[in-house]
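A favour, since you know our structure tokens better than I do. Go ahead and set the record down below.
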Amino acid sequence: MLTQKTKDIVKAPVLTAHGYTIIQLFCRRLFEAHPELKNVFNMAHQEQGQQQEALARAVYAYAENIEDPGSLAAVLRNIANKHASLDVKAEHYPIVGEHLPGEPKDEQPVANLEPGQYIGIAVDVPALGLQQIRQYSLSDVPNGHSYRISVKRESGEAGRPPGYVSALLHDDVEVFGLDLFAE
């Protein structure tokens, strides 16, 4: 049984506004970490965005019907049949959970830093095969549970290379409003 807090998270408006982008990020993370799972997916549909669109619609439908998931029984049976036909196994599902973006790790309060102070952000940069640490200014008042940072996209104009970290933060974290939760 889901708690009301979990239901509220699932019903958050971020799905309506950014569901497809979240699913694109999820798929990219999943296939980077587990390329062997490409055998389970129709890669032509992945490249065309059809798989991501279908998954985003399914997640959105679940969020819309979270108070009465039984109303989705026929759809869920269809998904279960498809998974069975593809030999999806129970051990695959935790892998999926690992790569869902933006899940807060715990409910511990964060320090009440003031706007203008800096925090360091460590980001894995696949293009470099490295982790890079950057400092960003806090840009919101303390709230005890999250930080908001301001990140300028470094586009790499005038012969300069683009900012690897700023591009990743804009492309991959933007859907969450750049609220970074304490871990």
Remarks:
- Confidence is low (pLDDT under 50) at residues 174-183.
- Strands lie at 118-125, 130-137, 147-148, 179-180.
- The radius of gyration is 19 Å.
